[in-house]
């Protein structure tokens, strides 16, 4: 029988996370204080993050050991399986060999618990009692709610209004784990009230919800804030994905020519890509890397590489990244996890330096790809993943044109079981394609702080 599934035993759960920063062929630009424009030291993050997380955020060590308690919880679902998508290959009649790493087997159905668990762990170790956070589609909120429950912490989640309304099941899941969930913007914080005064019907955005969650944490004694993407320590934690994938590709007797992932804040992409990118940087491999985003929130493909706030209210340090402007409110597309104005500083710099390519696709073409994938392979993908799948299918068709048997690996970073209303609308022909005009992008960029 031709193997389609490549699995590893518990002993292959990685012992350490891989920090790409010291291996980069360029220096990252530091976060800046918005008032003085001077680089901020790690202490600027002390009101919102525990010491261990701040150390990881600025770490120059290539390997960070994974605490044993975190590895034990990882063992509930890790190592995750790697599949060869033989039926999709047949459907596309392509000589390309397509592999995917499936993170949907985690308790919450995505890659997010890979960082939620260590973040909750380090906070508990330092005496924190409650974590606050934002969530878009609810993937991050449910993952942090799960991790907080494992570590005995309370959890408060500010959920982007449009997703709160569209995706009640994720809210119920968070509440099942015991979290407090609010539709953002709320009237519980200054940041939320300010938005509601101007836009009472605001659909919310990740940027707004971040402002609310940060304000809540900073204003409480025993609470800290937790971010599910973008920052260096989050991408660090996600590298368990790529490290396992390297071993599993070896089991399959292959090495990827191309690695593809969808990019919202860049964490699942960095998680699968960085361990392979290390092989390019240190060991002479020449794999291509492609990050895929929505045409309605085209941060990497049409944003500007500059300093901007991480949140809408302008309370975070300035970060050098691709951004559409912190006041940009993305359209209410169904890939909630990809609706963020900025992107990881590491991923942004890699795109800027030409080490990672970026592509953008429209909503309907990504769902078309996702439905084809579901019919071929059986797994209904999260709408975010459909962006990666669309790019993979294009690459496979290019391979057919060129008559090349290239090896494509992508990160199937979550299932779509909580996103079926989006599929319902797609199947009914009701999804709209929104592409930003240059004019709208220019307008959004006007509010940049620098
Ligand atoms: C959150 C999420 C994303 C976007 O976040 P990244 O940090 O870019 O990975 C993508 N896919 C799924 C399934 C998510 O839950």
UniProtKB/TrEMBL annotation:
Keyword match Transmembrane helix: no
InterPro entries: Trp_synth_b-like (IPR006316), Trp_synth_b_CS (IPR006653), Trp_synth_beta (IPR006654), Trp_synth_beta/beta-like (IPR023026), TrpB-like_PALP (IPR001926), TrpB-like_PALP_sf (IPR036052)
Modified residues (N6-(pyridoxal phosphate)lysine): 112
Pathway(s) this gene product operates in, as recorded in its UniProt entry: Amino-acid biosynthesis; L-tryptophan biosynthesis; L-tryptophan from chorismate: step 5/5
Sample GO molecular function, one term: L-serine hydro-lyase (adding indole, L-tryptophan-forming) activity
Obligatory cofactor(s): pyridoxal 5'-phosphate
Residues covered by the Tryptophan synthase beta chain-like PALP domain: 76-414
Enzymatic class: lyase
Domain of life: Bacteria
GO cellular component terms attached to this protein's record: cytoplasm
SUPFAM superfamilies cross-referenced by the UniProt entry: Tryptophan synthase beta subunit-like PLP-dependent enzymes
TM ranges: none
HAMAP family, per the entry: Trp_synth_beta
Biological role stated in the UniProt entry: The beta subunit is responsible for the synthesis of L-tryptophan from indole and L-serine.
Subunit-level organization: Tetramer of two alpha and two beta chains.
Similarity section: Belongs to the TrpB family.
Name the UniProt record assigns to this protein: Tryptophan synthase beta chain
Originating organism: Rubrobacter xylanophilus (strain DSM 9941 / JCM 11954 / NBRC 16129 / PRD-1)
């Amino acid at each position: 029988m031709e193997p389609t599934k490549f699995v590893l035993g518990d002993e292959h759960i990685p012992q350490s996370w891989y920090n790409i920063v010291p291996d980069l062929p360029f220096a990252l630009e530091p976060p800046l204080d918005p008032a003085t424009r001077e680089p901020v030291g790690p202490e600027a993050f002390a009101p919102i993050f525990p010491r261990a997380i701040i150390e990881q955020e600025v770490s120059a060590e290539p390997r960070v050991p994974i605490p044993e308690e975190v590895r034990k919880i990882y063992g509930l679902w890790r190592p995750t399986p790697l599949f060869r998508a033989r039926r999709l290959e047949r459907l596309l009649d392509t000589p390309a060999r397509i592999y995917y790493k499936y993170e949907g087997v985690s308790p919450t159905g995505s890659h997010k618990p890979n960082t939620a668990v260590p973040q909750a762990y380090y906070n508990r170790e330092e005496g924190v009692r409650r974590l606050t956070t934002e969530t878009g589609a609810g993937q991050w909120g449910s993952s942090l709610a799960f991790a907080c429950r494992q570590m005995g912490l309370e959890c408060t989640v500010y959920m982007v209004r449009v997703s709160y309304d569209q995706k009640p099941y994720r809210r119920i899941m968070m509440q099942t784990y015991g979290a407090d969930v609010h539709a953002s913007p709320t009237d519980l914080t200054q940041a939320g009230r300010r938005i509601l005064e101007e836009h009472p019907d605001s659909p919310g955005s990740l940027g707004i919800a971040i402002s609310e969650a940060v304000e809540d944490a900073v204003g409480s004694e025993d609470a800290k804030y937790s971010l599910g993407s973008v920052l260096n320590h989050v991408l660090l934690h996600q590298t368990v994905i790529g490290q396992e994938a390297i071993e599993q590709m070896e089991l399959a007797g292959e090495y990827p020519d191309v690695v593809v992932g969808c990019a919202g804040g860049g964490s699942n992409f960095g998680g699968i890509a960085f361990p392979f990118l290390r092989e390019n940087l240190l060991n002479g491999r020449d794999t291509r890397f492609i990050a895929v985003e929505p045409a309605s929130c085209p941060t990497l493909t049409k944003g500007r590489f500059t300093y901007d706030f991480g949140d809408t209210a302008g309370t975070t340090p300035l970060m050098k990244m691709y951004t559409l402007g912190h006041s940009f409110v993305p359209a209410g597309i169904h890939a909630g996890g990809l609706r963020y104005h900025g992107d990881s500083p590491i991923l942004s710099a890699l795109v800027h330096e030409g080490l990672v390519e970026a592509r953008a696709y429209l909503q309907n073409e990504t769902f078309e790809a996702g439905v084809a994938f579901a019919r071929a392979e059986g797994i209904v993908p999260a709408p975010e993943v459909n962006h990666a799948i669309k790019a993979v299918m294009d690459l496979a068709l290019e391979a057919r044109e060129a008559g090349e048997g290239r090896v494509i690996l992508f990160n199937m970073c979550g299932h779509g079981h909580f996103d079926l209303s989006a599929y319902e609308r797609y199947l009914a022909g009701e999804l709209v394609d929104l592409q930003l005009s240059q004019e709208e992008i220019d307008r959004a960029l006007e509010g940049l702080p620098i």
